[in-house]
Amino acid sequence: xxxxxxxxxxxxxxxxxxxxxxxxxxxxxxxxxxxxxxxxxxxxxxxxxxxxxxxxxxxxxxxxxxxxxxxxxxxxxxxxxxxxxxxxxxxxxxxxxxxxxxxxxxxxxxxxxxxxxxxxxxxxxxxxxxxxxxxxxxxxxxxxxxxxxxxxxxxxxxxxxxxxxxxxxxxxxxxxxxxxxxxxxxxxxxxxxxxxxxxxxxxxxxxxxxxxxxxxxxxxxxxxxxxxxxxxxxxxxxxxxxxxxxxxxxxxxxxxxxxxxxxxxxxxxxxxxxxxxxxxxxxxxxxxxxxxxxxxxxxxxxxxxxxxxxxxxxxxxxxxxxxxxxxxxxxxxxxxxxxxxxxxxxxxxxxxxxxxxxxxxxxxxxxxxxxxxxxx
Length: 376
Prior knowledge:
Blueprint: E1 9-13, E2 16-20, E3 51-53, E4 76-78, E5 84-87, E6 90-95, H1 102-106, H2 111-120, E7 123-125, E8 135-139, H3 143-163, E9 168-173, H4 177-192, E10 213-219, H5 224-244, E11 250-258, E12 269-273, H6 277-292, E13 299-300, E14 303-304, E15 313-318, H7 333-338, E16 343-349, E17 351-356, E18 369-374
Antiparallel strand pairs: 1-2, 3-4, 4-5, 5-6, 6-8, 7-8, 9-10, 9-17, 11-12, 11-16, 12-15, 13-14, 17-18
Helix pairs in contact: 5-6
Protein name: K Homology domain-containing protein
Keywords: RNA-binding
Region (Disordered): 28-47, 56-81
């Protein structure tokens, strides 16, 4: 059934859906079992394939008076797949792979690289350690081979990203003097309240006051290239965000104490509530853009992050601050009862930051940032 075009197997990478056709290896007599030949990647010229000319012939810089077209064949872009170019009988493509994943792509003693090259009959050129650049794919066998190699690499990167630890997050700073003061008073009141269990009054459970913020979404950013891409996405939303604000500067309130868990006697996070439709729309917009770019998880507790809204909150207490490896739940029943209407104050929404997880800026007391954009 799967060999019939209408019933071809499909799979998704990011926001793209691919059709997986049954692959039949090349039967060309000059291709060895490994899918490679001594002159397979030489620049020999062959008849044009199903491609459209993209580049113009190169000009010899040594002839300022006489301009003659280069004898090198022009590189062309394939009509059926613009990711792939064609030149001199050779199909080529490039794909960006974060340097953190180069080792996974190579595999133990080159095993993964060889397996991909042999199964797709392509040659991979991977930047050496410490070097930057795209992974290059080349094949003399056919367009389909390069397509399959690209799909394999995209799938490998996607799986590696999902299994890797999160590295950054988008934050809206909220540590205004008013909110910091209210938080310090809340902290002192909780620690002094003898109705609250002793383990819940541990000062280490509380966030550093200068780190108070809204987490819009968490991110995987593995190098400067990805940090720049995330920054470009946020910068591209700036005008839309400003236009959505009823006034500038825009202020929002932090009211009440809440938790994510159903059982108030067994919680791991206590947060301050934020209820602002305007800010909600901004957070949802940013997260969706970054999820679609593959930089933020597409699911959160089995719920799609594209189809749901950001749970806006300002973390006040967290068991992970005490023991990041094995956070232990604490009893917050009294806190949630006595401080459910606690007013922390207002903050001005005037900037969006990309922060590095588990860091602190010694100058500001906030997280280290790789990007910040002002909305004023």
